[in-house]
Specification:
115 residues; seven-stranded mixed β-sheet; four-stranded antiparallel β-sheet; 11 strands
């Protein structure tokens, strides 16, 4: 059974940090490009960051460059998103996504940035 399970979300004050994790099972994680997306209330889902399967090349949305870092540990089948200097506009449900010949999504984890 294919699963992507996100964790690490929560409530944090502006300027704070969170680390999201996404643990994969049921497919060859290391053979997939993986990404973090987010969706705020009333807005479309948007790409936050992506890391390729082999070279580990990364891509970031302009809004998070310099604040967020995506990484992966293929030995642990886990994707990470380190989020620093969080802003209220980062509030959203964060989803991990894996794609190769098929596309898989996690169920999402809520991140709320508020004082």
């Amino acid at each position: 059974q294919v699963q992507l399970v996100e964790s690490g979300g929560g409530l944090v004050q502006p300027g704070g940090s969170l680390r999201l994790s996404c643990t994969a099972s049921g497919f060859a994680f290391s053979s997939y490009g993986v990404s973090w997306y987010r969706q705020a209330p009333g807005k479309d889902r948007e790409l936050v960051a992506r890391i390729t399967k082999f070279s580990g090349s990364t891509v970031y949305a302009d809004s998070v460059k310099g604040r967020f870092t995506i990484s992966r540990d293929n030995a642990k089948n886990t994707l990470y998103l380190q989020m620093n200097s969080l802003k209220p506009e980062d509030t959203a449900v964060y989803y991990c996504e894996a794609d190769s010949n098929q596309v898989y999504w996690g169920q999402g984890t809520q991140v709320t940035v508020s004082s």
